[in-house]
């Protein structure tokens, strides 16, 4: 049978913060503060990872994205025309003093 090893995280917070978090854990019915903190950290971690995976699902997606940022293609004629149109628009709508 495998031995379960519990790791530890130490966090320093003010007495007021601890009381505030403890109060929230009691409202939600957790047995103790540790159970509440583990629940909250796991929940937030799952949301962060899920959000990250929605944007760029695979490592390949991430590689392609970073490569496009670091090595952008040269602007084509449509992009150059769009930039000129934008500059004309800004110039035409400038507020004169």
Number of helices: 4
Main β-sheet, in a few words?
none
Weakly predicted, low-confidence segments: none
Helical percentage? 55-70%
Specify the overall morphology: elongated
Helix-strand topology string: HHHH
Name the beta content range: under 5%
Oligomeric form? single chain
* Broad structural category: mainly alpha
The residue-averaged pLDDT reads 89
Secondary structure elements and pairings:
Elements: H1 15-28, H2 33-55, H3 59-70, H4 77-92
How would you characterize this protein structure?
By secondary structure, the chain is mainly alpha-helical. 67% of the residues lie in helices and 0% in strands. The chain contains four helices and no strands. It has helices at residues 15-28, 33-55, 59-70, 77-92. The radius of gyration is 26 Å and the shape is elongated.
A few lines on this structure:
The chain is mainly α and 97 residues long.
Task: Please tag this protein with its features.
mainly alpha, 4 helices
